[in-house]
C-alpha cells in the first residue's frame, strides 16, 4: 500500500505508451529502421488489442524486473546457492497496476534460449514464488497474458527508439522486431496462451 510522495511525470503504463507511440511514429518513419511502416502497423494493431480497467490492485512497481536487476549471493553452500540478496535499478519505478510489474517480470524471466523459446516451467515457478508474497486476484489472472504482451510491446518500442536515437546497433533493431513479430515474442505468447491460461487456472 506504499505510495511515494514524489510524482513521476514519465510512466510506462498502457495509456502513456499509446501516447508515446503516437508521438514516436514520425521519428520511426524518418528513421532507418527496417520495414518501418510494417513495424508501426504491427505495433499499432497489438497495442490497441489490449485494455486494462481501473479495477486492478495498484502499488509501487519496479517496472523492469529482469535478470540484470537481481543481485545473487555467491560463494554459498550448495543448499543456499541462488539466494537473492539485492534488487537494483528503480529509475522506472512508479505507482501503478501491479499486474504490469508481473507482466514485465514474465517477459524478462520466462523466455529462454536467448529469447527464442517460451518456458512454461519458468512461468509456473515465477507465479508460485510471486504468490507466496501476494495472491493474484481473479481479474489479474484473466488479464496476465495481456500484461505480458504489453511488457513485450513497451520494451520493443523502447529498443526501436534506442536503435534510432542512440546506438544504431543492429542488435537493438533486431530485438525490437523480434519483440513484436508473429515469429518472435508476441507470437510465442499467442502460441502458448492456452498453456499459460491452464497454468494460472490450476495454480
Describe this structure in words.
The chain has 203 residues and is mainly alpha-helical. The protein is 55% helix and 9% strand. It is built from 8 helices and 6 strands, in the order ααββββαββααααα. It has helices at 14-29, 36-47, 98-109, 120-133, 138-167, 170-180, 185-191, 193-202, and strands spanning 58-61, 70-72, 84-87, 94-97, 111-112, 117-118. The strands form 3 sheets. Strands 1-4 form a two-stranded antiparallel ribbon. A hairpin with a 4-residue loop joins β5 and β6 (117-118). α1 (14-29) runs antiparallel to α2, α4 packs parallel to α8 and α5 (138-167) runs antiparallel to α6. It starts with 13 loop residues before the first helix and ends with a helix.
Q: What order do the helices and strands come in, and which of them pair?
A:
Elements: H1 14-29, H2 36-47, E1 58-61, E2 70-72, E3 84-87, E4 94-97, H3 98-109, E5 111-112, E6 117-118, H4 120-133, H5 138-167, H6 170-180, H7 185-191, H8 193-202
Antiparallel strand pairs: 1-4, 2-3, 5-6
Q: Which bin fits the share of residues in helices? A: 55-70%
Query: How many DSSP E strands?
Result: 6
In DSSP terms (H or I, runs of 4 or more residues), the helix count works out at 8
Question: What is the terminal separation in angstroms?
Answer: 25 Å
> What sort of overall outline do the alpha carbons produce when their principal axes are compared?
globular
Mean pLDDT: 92
Spatial strand order of the main sheet = 1-4
| Helix-strand topology string | HHEEEEHEEHHHHH
Question: Any low-confidence stretches, pLDDT <50, length ≥5?
Answer: none
Outline the biggest β-sheet.
2 strands, antiparallel
